[in-house]
Structure formats: structure tokens, C-alpha cells
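User: Could you write out the 3D structure of this protein bound to guanine? I've included everything you need below.
Assistant: Certainly. Input first, then the structure.
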Amino acid sequence: MAARLIDGRQSARSIIESVKSATAALEQRAGCTPGLAVVIVGDDPASHAYVGAKSRMAKECGFASTQHTLPATTTQDELEALVARLNTDHGVHGVLVQLPLPPHLDGDQLTQSVSPAKDVDGLHAVNAGKVATGDFDSGLVSCTPAGAMVLVRSVHGSDLSGLNAVVIGRSNLFGKPMSALLLAANATVTIAHSRTKDLPAICRSADILVAAVGRPQMVTADWIKAGATVVDVGINRVLVPGEPDGKTRLVGDVSFEESQAVAGAVTPVPGGVGPMTIAMLMANTVTAAYRAAGIKPPRFG
Ligand code: GUN
């Protein structure tokens, strides 16, 4: 039997509808419009595509959205001055600096210069620390792991007691916060990475397998336990074999066709985790705006 498809587009749409309602309610109660500032440096086409999608969605949600598009020659001081200005701007509730930055800039330092209350990416050490310690009421959770967890909950519910989860990838952006969220939901969590011995065997122990490595279709059928839930966080552009003109398509870190035959449920690429990242960014922005207005925010997802 083919695995169940986990529809990230549908889950994302439902979260966006809740964000729109919450935005309208905040406007009515406090006269406050959520403000999102997105900063992008240089001309990486993939980053521009992501940022364009974020800015469009922010407008659709009814936010006051501003995009700061800076040349690749921008200096660290200039960028830090912009972030400092956005940190004190009362109309801005969320600040996002798109990564990766050009190599002469220190992305970590910039990420840590965003005010934790406006860190809608959830990457500041204060927010990462809250996730690590299980405080989900006062911080902001990193968007992609938060979105991936919504999809996991859609299959398993909110209590993962007794389930083995394996996360491949240990980045601050995804692997570490994802592992913390799975652990907080009572899963037994293994973090695997490039130095892990016998990765396929570790993966085969997973009831929930989460792949975030950035290597196209690395996870094959023999890595997957029968009936497992497979969450594919990879977004890789690859050439379509045999097609002229360098035609490309998007694939995940999991071989989708192979996973279909073994897994119980899988997230497709595109249309799985990707749309959830943007939805959770919108949720974080409206959450930050509620807190700035002194009102308890609703929960999303
Ligand atoms: N680049 C790839 N993913 C992300 C993300 O979630 N946030 C930011 N700021 N940059 C990214």
C-alpha cells in the first residue's frame, strides 16, 4: 500500500487562515497591525525567491510588511545599524535576516543582534534556549521545525510517547530545535549527522524519520522502517536527466518514490514542509505583535 501523503499546503493554508483572523482581531482590539521586516543581502536567486514568497504572504495576512534589499557589498556595520533601527521601530514586530549571507558577513552575530522579542526566525540564543528548556509560552520557535511538528502531530497527535524519532542533521536552524520539539513531545530522539556510524541502520530504528541534510534523495527505501512517518526537509534543485536546456526540478533529501513503498506517511517536496515554514513565520509575527500590545496570543497549529 502506498504511503499516506502529508499535505503541507493544506495545513499551511489552515494556519494562514487563523493568522488572518488573529490579525483582524488584534487590529480591532488594539488598533495594532503586525509589522514584518525582511532583510536580504546580495543576489542569491533561491534566497530572493524565498524572501519574495515571505513578503507576499505577509501582505496577504494583512501585515505591514517591508523588504530591505541590500547589495552584496553591504558591510557588517551597515547591516547591524539597520537591524538596530528595526529593533527599536514600534511598527515592526518581526525582523528576519535571510540566510545565508555573503561570506564577508557574520551571520551568527547578526542573528544574535535581533531583539529576541522580534526574532520571528527563532534563532536568537534566548529563543533557542527556551525551546531547549521546554518553555513554549514566552519565546518564538524556529519556523521550519515548528511547521514540521505540525505535520508530525497531524499523523501521531501531540503525545509521541514510545516512538523513536531520528533527525538527520544537527544545524541550529533546524536539527537542534526539531530534536528539542520532538523530545518535548515525549519522543525518544536520536540526532544523526555526517559523522554518524551506520546511518541507514540508525534510520531504520525510526518511527518518525526527519531528514534535513541538503543531499538530494539520500534516504532510500532500505533506510526506512515499514510504516514509518518520513518528514523531508530538504529542498534540492537537480537537473532532470535526459532533458535539454538544463531543465531542473525540486527534490527532497528522501527518494520520494522509494519511500512511498515502505513508509506509512511521507511529506512530499514540494508541498510538504516548505509551505509550513512560511505559515509559521506569519504565526510568529502575529504572536510577537500580540505580545507587544500586551495581549495573550492565540496558539497556531
Ligand atoms: N534560509 C533558509 N531557511 C531560512 C530560515 O528559516 N530563515 C532565514 N532567516 N534564512 C533561511
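The chain has a mean pLDDT of 97.
User: Perfect, thank you.
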